[in-house]
Predict the 3D structure of the following.
Amino acid sequence: MGAAVAPPGIERDRRLDHRWPRVRAVVDTNVVAYYLLGTPGFASEAKDFWRRVVDPLAPALWEAEVANVVWMAARSGVVAPEDAPSKLDYAGQLGIHSIASRTLWRGALRRALESGVAAYDTLFVELADRESLPLATFDERLLASFPLIAKRPKTLGA
C-alpha cells in the first residue's frame, strides 16, 4: 500500500497554519467523510474546520463508520476502488483521538432513549458533553436535538 495522498487543495499539516483560530472539538463522522470525499455543499466548510481543529476526539466507532462510507463511495463510483485505501490512510492521519465506545455507551443509551436519536450518534454527543467540548457535525437531527452541544463546523472558533 502506498503513502496517503491528501485530497486536492488540502494542506497536510494544518497546525502550521496560524491564520485560523484554534478549536478543540469532538468530530462527527460526517465531518471526516465530507472532507475526505469532497462532498459538494459541505467540503469547503469541512476543509476550513480541519484547518482550525486541534486534538480532535471521537468515539472509536468513527473508524468503522469512515471505512463503511469509503466502501459505499467506492461501490457507487464516487471514489475509484484503487483510491479507497488511501482515503482511509488519510483519515488515519487527521489526528483524531479515538475513545473507546464502551466508556460512553451507558450515557449514549440514556440520551438515545430520551431523544429518539440513534445510540450510534449519541455516542458522539456523550463524549462531547463529558469533555465539555462542542460536537462538530452536519447532522440536522443532532443539531436540532442537542443544540447546546452539536454545532456546525463553521460556527466553531469563529
User: Anything to note?
Assistant: Residues 1-5, 9-16 have pLDDT under 50 and may be disordered. The longest strand covers residues 57-59.
